[in-house]
Amino acid sequence: MQNYLNNKNINIYLAAPRGFCAGVERAINMVEEALTKYGKPVYVRHEIVHNKYVVEDLKSKGAIFIENLDEIENNKRPVIFSAHGVPKAVPLQADKLNLLYYDATCPLVSKIHREVEFFESKNLEIILIGHHNHPEVIGTMGQINSKIHLIEKESDVNKLKLKKFSEVAYVTQTTLSVDDTKSIIKALKNKYPNIMEPKKDDICYATTNRQEAVKKIASKSDLFIVIGAKNSSNSLRLVEVAKQYGAKKSILLENLEKFDFKKLKNILSVGITASASAPEILVQNFIKLVKKNYKIKLYEEDHIKENVFFKIPQDLKSINL
């Protein structure tokens, strides 16, 4: 690889925390444990998490990714549902097909599923703040029979046709922009004074922490790079947050090998993070590639280590059958 400007220093600011969250680690562990316990292949409905590196790695170990359960050619093989969650119709279909299945839905997404069930039991109109066609949103809307009113942005609040003093509640997708969601919730509370809210924020700890970490270093960055996937909501939100908080330019980097290092020729400082569905190894590999082209100074702020851990199902652990 050609060196573009070896005598130039680039300051690299690493956001912390970054990379895998507990829900992503649990989902990946469930696929790996299933492969150990049952052997190849193990089916996975939808990408287990939105990251091509992770998906390709699991494919190499024997996972087969599908979008619909009727794609499964051998119903004796186990199938795992992705971390994003699924509508209730999916496990019902799996039962009809006599499939052995495991649900890798993130527990923090499952929390939202229970919330909409509770709100439905109270005969409340339910508003979901989230992104159209995102798997998590599809899964949440598929938990109940009642209609859920989906909104994406603050301007959508004005389009809601519910009466001012209706019995209303809201939930949110776990991977939204913290700042944008606050403004949407404020608009909802202004329009519906009696609106019920979740007991705890639905935006997950990992999304919040990663966005806060980006905010701390964005203004120092001529270029901010988010390592993640184009279909990953939490990745896209980090790109937006970096731009909003002072990065001169922010980009999503999905494939390290396709990065044009000429882009760094006039750059003095680079901010880097990895989304909650992107592994730390991609960050380290990218830094190694930068080192081949430029001299670097690496900075990483002190941060509180995340200590959240979600167990995998006991009956999935790799024991002798």
* Number of distinct beta strands: 12
Q: Would you list the SSEs in sequence order as H and E?
A: EHEHEEHEHEHEHEHHEHEEHE
CATH class of the largest domain: Alpha Beta
CATH architecture term of the largest domain: 3-Layer(aba) Sandwich
Q: For the largest beta sheet, what order do the strands appear in spatially?
A: 10-9-11-1-12
Please identify which CATH superfamily of the largest domain we are dealing with. 4-hydroxy-3-methylbut-2-enyl diphosphate reductase, catalytic domain
Question: What's the story with the biggest beta sheet?
Answer: 5 strands, parallel
Q: Are there runs of 5+ residues with pLDDT below 50, and where?
A: none
SS-based class? alpha/beta
What would the CATH topology of the largest domain be?
Cobalt-precorrin-4 Transmethylase, domain 1
As for the number of domains, it is 3
Shape, principal axes of CA atoms: flat
Number of helices: 10
General description of the model:
This protein is α/β, with parallel strands linked by helices. The protein folds into 3 domains: 9-20 and 205-300, Cobalt-precorrin-4 Transmethylase, domain 1, CATH 3.40.1010.20; 22-105, Rossmann fold (3-Layer(aba) Sandwich), CATH 3.40.50.11270; 108-191, Cobalt-precorrin-4 Transmethylase, domain 1, CATH 3.40.1010.20. The protein has helices spanning 22-38, 52-61, 89-96, 107-121, 135-141, 154-157, 178-191, 205-218, 233-244, 280-293, and strands at residues 9-14, 42-45, 63-66, 79-81, 101-103, 125-129, 148-151, 168-172, 223-227, 250-253, 269-274, 295-300. The strands form 3 sheets. A 5-stranded parallel β-sheet has the order 10-9-11-1-12, with helices on both faces. It is flat and about 65 Å long. The N and C termini lie far apart (50 Å).
